[in-house]
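Reply to dn_fold:

You asked what the input looked like. This is it:
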Amino acid sequence: MTVELTGETAVLAITGEVDMASAPGLRDQLQQLDARNVVIDLSGVTFIDSTGLGVLVTALKRSREAGGHLVLRSPTRATRRVLDITGLSQLVPVED
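and this is what came back:
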């Protein structure tokens, strides 16, 4: 994971699988971000399961509570399909 911080916006780029094994690390990284607005770059994600989706939902709630927003950027085709099937793409803006 890499993080770029510009003002009140943090861009977090994730690579590989976001599953039960890696989701806690992602959750910790998101909690440490000192930004109201978060962009999560999913272009390097090869797989995401329900645990990973739960981390994204928690990040969405935290950003909204802080008066900010969360954006998911460039999901892979497989990741986009999961976001659409679960309805998460209806709750979080997705930039292709």
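The radius of gyration is 12 Å.
Hope that clears it up.
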